[in-house]
Amino acid sequence: MRKIMGTAAKAVAVCLFAMQFACGGGETTEDPWNKVQAILSESRDIVVLDGTEKAELKYAGTDEPEFGDWMVRHALSDPENFNPYTSSDQGATQVHTYVFESLLEPDYDPPYTQRGYIAVDYPTVSEDKLTYTFRLRENVHFADGVHLTADDVLFSIKTILTPTVRAPHLRNYYASIVNVRKLGDYEISFECREPYILNDLFLGSFDILPRHFYDPDGLLDPVPIGTLIDGSWEAGEHADRVRQFGERFNQDFNRRMLGSGPYGVADWENDVLTGQRVVLSRNENYWGREVDGLPPAGNVDKVVFKIINNQDAAFIELTNGNLDLHGMKPLEFKEKSWSPGFTDRFMKGIQYAGGYTYIGWNNDHPIFRDRRVRQAMTHLTDRESMVRNLLFGLAEPVESPIHKFRPEYNHDLQAYAFDPDLALSLLNEAGWSDSDKDGILDKEIDGERIPFRFEFLVNSGNQLRKDIALTLQSALEDLGIDCQVRELDWSIFLERVKDKDFAAVTLGWSGGTGLRFPPDAYQIWHSSQIEGNGSNFVSFRNEESDGILEVYRTDFDMDRRIELYRRFQEILHEEQPYTFLWKSRVVSAYSRRFHGVNWYPAGAVNQEWWVEPTDRMYQ
Prior knowledge:
Blueprint: H1 8-23, H2 33-41, E1 47-50, E2 53-55, E3 70-75, H3 90-99, E4 104-106, E5 114-116, E6 124-125, E7 131-135, H4 150-161, H5 168-171, E8 177-184, E9 187-192, H6 199-203, H7 211-214, H8 225-230, H9 239-252, E10 263-264, H10 268-271, E11 272-273, E12 277-282, E13 302-307, H11 311-319, E14 325-328, H12 330-335, H13 340-345, E15 346-352, E16 356-361, H14 371-379, H15 383-389, E17 395-397, H16 420-429, E18 442-445, E19 448-451, E20 453-459, H17 463-478, E21 482-488, H18 490-498, E22 504-509, H19 522-525, H20 543-552, H21 558-575, E23 578-591, E24 594-595, E25 599-600, E26 603-604, E27 610-611
Parallel strand pairs: 3-13, 20-21, 20-22
Antiparallel strand pairs: 1-2, 1-15, 4-5, 6-7, 7-9, 8-9, 10-12, 11-12, 12-13, 14-23, 15-23, 16-22, 16-23, 17-23, 18-19, 24-27, 25-26
């Protein structure tokens, strides 16, 4: 299946590189790390490194892109499933980016203007900001050749709003919709109950699904969208259809998908193998490839997500030439990526991640219901030491979920310093003491004396998250707290989190609106998102916070929004439902054979990349 291109000399060079890496040979006597640290300290912006030299962010060549070759990317775990509405993990999102399309797409550079994608252009918006009317392109078709029309857009939003569909993380962004009207085969209008600062973003960004594929029996066709919105469907004549559709949609499309995008799975039996790979093939008949003004469709013949659930093993695969793109761990970046063999084959892009890393405390757990306990846990988390020793400075500590470089971030929040004495004082104040002198703190809770003993869950294969838990475990042990670190396979780990069957976990939120748009923290922090599979799985409840999250969404005055969210962050800071850790600086190593690599504020766009025929490795 794989064909190595070029002469025998190229094969020898690869072998020599692998030997050099394994033996530690070929490294320069000068430590490059000091030079790289100096470069990184000069800016918070994206940095591209050519060896130890700072390189340009944008491709300066004049050659036109060509089709061919593969792009092999690392994925830490299998996608949760392939349903674009019921899945919410990063692995699935990365795959769906190539397969599904939306009405609008933001520009890659500031001011991030929304441009037409499936829609011809930005929607017509009423003066009261309650009605958004989209005109669709008439040449769009799905991968099976069926044309995309307003019926598919209507079906897609009905699916999101169907309560029996397991998509609460999506539904909250469309809660203000009161009606959707099809005005013609290629025109559709969304009517909203109230203004929302991100209506244009979310109405323009949901994946459009083919009705004929995801609802072949037309179960949702006669169901008025208003009944799905107000809940009256349960007592209506179509209740059985809604329940049956939800059941089918939740179960039947975990391993099937069809979109209008430029890539798809060609052979589900061979291209999607659990624990091994997900292979996406370029659609030769993609509708948008020659359409001016559209985002790049992709130039490689195949995009391969190679599943390697151990990051150390993934780095070895990178050095062996079996990966083209890989996010390196800080230690790998610092100590293992400067040999001539490595720098001759890979460039590096360094950027701040759009999300953040955190420890989540189950606020409904008997031990962590008391905010003083959660505050104490943060005082026992030596974040500065972790950034220094685990991440080698490749991170920025944060105190809230808001992007630290957005104006809404509250820089006045006093950092929780590592202070075991203050932590013990808070625990004593909350009633924890070693009453039976067994070396473990205990307290009477709900009529029963229980020891301060809990399980800290981490997903296997992520050494950094394990190191976070182990570092905290050591600090807790000194105070008489028994913390047991338990590694679980990703699927089991995710199920435990969704079921809220945990005391503490370490995770990260990625993506979101990031730098490009105002943040909306409703999905993760509003109390309505606790139920079902909502993203508020730590069960945080606060009436004032809920009110702020609701008002913020409808206020178009930026200064007032900043004021609201600064107060919201103060509440989180006091309650500590998470111990916010840091915003990481992510290092991506990518093969030099790719041309057209441009780095934007939100990162590189892999669909722009291409390979010259003489440099191709796969066919």
